[in-house]
Structures are given as C-alpha cells and as structure tokens.
Amino acid sequence: MLQIPATGGPADPPPPAPRVHVVQRGENAFRIALRYGTTVEAIAAHNGIRNPNLIYAGQVLIIP
Prior knowledge:
The protein has helices at residues 29-36, 40-47; strands at residues 19-22, 60-63. It is of the alpha+beta class. The chain has a domain at 25-63: LysM domain (Membrane-bound Lytic Murein Transglycosylase D, Chain A), CATH 3.10.350. The chain has a two-stranded antiparallel ribbon.
C-alpha cells in the first residue's frame, strides 16, 4: 500500500511565467515599463541592458 505523507497545507503555487515583450517601432523603455507596471531599471537589469535608451524594434525583452 502506498502512503503519501500530509504536507500540512496546500502546495505552493507555481511561480508566474515570465512575460515577454517584443519591442515595436516607436516604443521606448519608459512606455514599456509603464505598460507592465515595472521600472526601466528593472527591465534593463533583468535583460542585461546597459543603456535602456538603446532598445530596438524586434528586440525581445523579458519583463520582471
């Protein structure tokens, strides 16, 4: 007989999937940050961007 021990509570929910944003022509890091409720600094740090003023159309950003 297989016995499964009780955990004492519900399992932790899985972490949220990362959001992906593809930069469109005319967008800037500030507007993207506003759209997702984060900061330019957080997006830059999460994507290894040294100068967030130099993003380009077609660039794929992971939104923290």
